[in-house]
Amino acid sequence: MDHHTVLPLSTNLATTRSEQALALILTMAFLSTLLHLYTDYKAFLALGPGGTPSTIPGYVRTKTLSFFALRNPYLPNTNPQREQGYLHHLPARLKPRPVTRGIAPHRQITQRASPALYQRLAAELCRLVAADPERLVLGTSCFEKHGTGLFSRSPARRTCRGEICHAHPSDGSMHMTLHPADARVVLEAGWGERHPLARGGWFEKFVPEGFVMVYAPRGEEDVEVLVRIVQAGAWFVNLGKGDGTDLCPGPMVVRDVLGSGIEGTKVVATAE
């Protein structure tokens, strides 16, 4: 004769309520995760075009790379560097540092440059090319695939097709490759930070070890400092040819900088 254990009604009700509570918690967690991913994806799109497509696969790629991002981009590379770079000293940038976000694209969120200051910076980059057309040229950024980059015609350092730097019209910041000693000077003076993937080794598949973001200018004095840092990048990518003083031998007048800053390659400049 079979004997069946009959659970009390109160026990069945308690089990049902527990299952319902668990289902509710899981549903809320799932919806919360979806909301977070949606918000984070919108923030990714808000960074604008960059080296990664503004698509769901591009978003997934950047989220995957974020697991390998530097924990503190303000600290220079710990590898000892005995060689002297191009920069001996930079004035300290007024604090605080701007807020930055992303990996590809990697953008400055606060303290963005005004359109006038970005145009001023663009004109200075054009001036560098006009002053040294045998070594420097403007073209579409190899790293970003958008916007304009400054290139070495005969690079001696491994970068993306000899790219020295590129500027971001959306915020006025720049990315560039620097000598490790110069990167240290820039970081310690507060003018920039390392790119999140600038770890060296296998990660040079994405960016060089000395790849840094230089913050957008906030005034004319900042533009002068930024031009000096760009000169350091040009010096390094060209394998330290010359002392850098010949990159801008005299004042230049840029006759035609395209309306969108340096979003193009047509530059007409003459020395005065």
User: Could you give the count of β-strands?
Assistant: 10
Query: Largest sheet, order of strands side by side?
Result: 3-4-5-6-8-7
Helix/strand-derived category reads: alpha+beta
Average pLDDT, all residues: 80
Helical content class: 25-40%
Q: First CA to last CA: what distance?
A: 112 Å
Overall geometry: elongated
Low-confidence stretches: 241-272
Q: Could you spell the SSE succession in H and E letters?
A: HHEEHEEEEHEEHEE
Number of helices: 5
Describe this structure in words.
With 272 residues, the protein is α+β, with helices and mostly antiparallel strands. It folds into two domains: 9-59; 71-271, no CATH class. 34% of the residues lie in helices and 15% in strands. The protein is built from five helices and ten strands, in the order ααββαββββαββαββ. The strands form three sheets. Strands 3-4-5-6-8-7 form a six-stranded antiparallel sheet, with helices on one face. The chain has a two-stranded antiparallel ribbon with strand order 1-2. A hairpin with a 7-residue loop joins strand 3 (136-140) and strand 4. Helix 3 packs parallel to helix 5 (220-237). The protein is elongated and about 95 Å long. The chain starts with 8 loop residues before the first helix and ends with a strand. Residues 241-272 have low confidence and may be disordered.
